[in-house]
Amino acid sequence: MNIKFKTTALTALALCLAGPALAAEITFVSQGGAYQEAQTKAILDPVTEKTGITVKQDSSPDAWPVLRTQTATGKPIWDVIDTPTKDCIRGGEQGMIEKLDIANMPVVAAMPAELRNDWSVAYEFYSSVLAYNADAYGDNPPQSWADFWDVEKFPGTRALRNHPLATLEAALMADGVAPADMYPMDVDRAFKKLEEIKPHINVWWTSGAQSAQLLADGEVDMTMAWNGRVSAVKAEGAAVDFTYNQGILQYTSLCVLKGAPNRDTAMKFIDAAMSPEIQANFPEYIDYGPGNPAAYDTGKISAERAAEMPNSPDNAAKQVLNSAEWWSSPEGDKALERWAAFVQQ
Amino acid sequence: MSNASTPEERRERRMILLLLAPALIVVGLLLITPLVWMGWQSFRGPEGFTLAHYARFFTDTVYLSSFVQTFRIAFLVTIAAILIGYPIAYVAAKSQGIWPPIILGLVLLPFWTSVLVRAYAWLILLQRRGIVNTALTKAGVIDQPLILVNNEFGTVMATLHILLPFMVLPLYATMKKIPAELEMAGASLGGGGGLVFRSVFLPLSMPGVIAGSVLVFVLTLGFYITPELLGGGRTFLVSMLVSRNIEIYNEWGAASSISVVLLVMVFAIFRLASMIIPFERIMGTK
């Protein structure tokens, strides 16, 4: 009787202690598809293993409108989102994103200042690169945006993204602006340079899949495209290639919704997800680079694989780091507004 | 004629109302309510009532050019649908036996395929290394591939393909009702085939032309997927302006105002058309 009572008491005590640990869960939201599947294996499962945090998943190709709706109710159901950095910043400025609890996030605090801000931290890297048809150009492919603009030396059909982000940066590089002098951007100069190439652009693409298809089908001979999209069609055997030279390095970030149901766990989750060891898993599953550059020092990423990654030290040095701060500023909004008028006329 | 109605009449009216109730509730809940909501939102900004969303029609040059381009494409599609649809409907209406159902069946066949699939089909057909360009190059007709898609041409082509049945069916219905005797009478008065067609058949088929044109024109105004996939980014129609406004201004009101203006224009078109032929005929109920 006594023993049985003790056992029951101990079990109850154990349950009480385990309770909070069992309740440690968050809802993580990314953009779905192969990209989110890769994250599950590379990041989410290892974080659960390391910290015991249960990760529930949801996905949304564009989290921004959902973020607005959920925080408007004051009772969001999502905790952590992986979204373009711009959304974390403007969301933070509009009171929809929690500030990072940086004092309790040693890993995030140790990251380079340019890769984090009050609300978010760089999570994975991709790049807007110059991609081309390998058959069309043979041994002398275009290697810079100046080449892309040079229709005499590099004839052929061209495409660009129907969006000013990265496109304006490319135009300025074609006009001779050095990556270090990119921001704040000279928008007038960029649009002036774009007017030059506009008559030679066959397609202004709207989705990543479309850009890859245009290239693989031979509809265009060169285009700006996201590195992962190009390498995917290349792996399927299409005669395409790309260069990281003058690529526009972009990243998505992790941030926490204002009033998130599991705010503290969410902060712990982010710090664990950003650890170099776990971040170093990214290249194993997908052609996107770890948000934490320290991952390249862990020895987990081979030299060959690093050479294929958008933000490995060697590749990052050839590119310009996109400024999410600039794009979420009023100047960035104005550039976005001006875009449609430019494309249409 | 008097206002006093018999109990039977009143009961019948109640019965009709009761039978209509489910339809009225569905329309009210799923159509009227969202429309009113949309109209209300178009006047709402962060600080309450605003005309800012409508003011953009006069300040943002993209608005005007989007509306102009949309109406131009709708016009081109409508003209092309008349030119292609009229002969088809004519042959279907004049043929005998199993031919009418076969012709109409062929017109309707693509109608049962997804719009998305058809857009991609046109892409495959018309692109630079597509079937059309390859065939023309191999046949020696052209040296350089023609640019047939990712522009306004591709958009018009695919939209026309999707909307052609909306032209052919009202035309066919109208032509079927034209008594053959009238043409015989015309011929008996000494008119040749061409003259009888021009002075008898063509005028009598005009209600069908107008009905089909209104349908095709109005439906083109709201197209989204086709210009998005086949327009190459250059065809920037009103529907795309709506989605762009949500992206740029972050406000549903900005998008709602465009929808409201487009809706008013569509109503105006129907009103104009109904001055020529009754509304019921456009919709094919009479």
From TrEMBL, chain A:
The lineage of its organism: Bacteria, Pseudomonadati, Pseudomonadota, Alphaproteobacteria, Rhodobacterales. InterPro entries: SBP (IPR006059). It comes from Paracoccus laeviglucosivorans. PANTHER family: ABC TRANSPORTER SUBSTRATE-BINDING PROTEIN, SPERMIDINE/PUTRESCINE-BINDING PERIPLASMIC PROTEIN. It comes from the Bacteria. Residues 1-23 form the signal peptide. Pfam families: SBP_bac_8. The keyword Lyase does not apply. This is Putative spermidine/putrescine transport system substrate-binding protein. Keywords: Signal.
UniProtKB/TrEMBL annotation, chain B:
CDD domains: TM_PBP2. PROSITE patterns: ABC_TM1. The keyword Nucleotide-binding does not apply. SUPFAM superfamilies: MetI-like. GO terms for biological process: transmembrane transport. It is found in: Cell membrane. Gene3D superfamilies: MetI-like. InterPro entries: MetI-like (IPR000515), MetI-like_sf (IPR035906). GO terms for cellular component: plasma membrane. Keywords: Cell membrane, Membrane, Transmembrane, Transmembrane helix, Transport. Residues 67-273 form the ABC transmembrane type-1 domain. It is a multi-pass membrane protein. Signal peptide: none annotated. The chain crosses the membrane at residues 16-40, 73-93, 102-125, 153-174, 195-225, 252-273. PANTHER family: ABC TRANSPORTER PERMEASE PROTEIN, INNER MEMBRANE ABC TRANSPORTER PERMEASE PROTEIN YDCU-RELATED-RELATED. Belongs to the binding-protein-dependent transport system permease family. CysTW subfamily. This is Putative spermidine/putrescine transport system permease protein. The lineage of its organism: Bacteria, Pseudomonadati, Pseudomonadota, Alphaproteobacteria, Rhodobacterales.
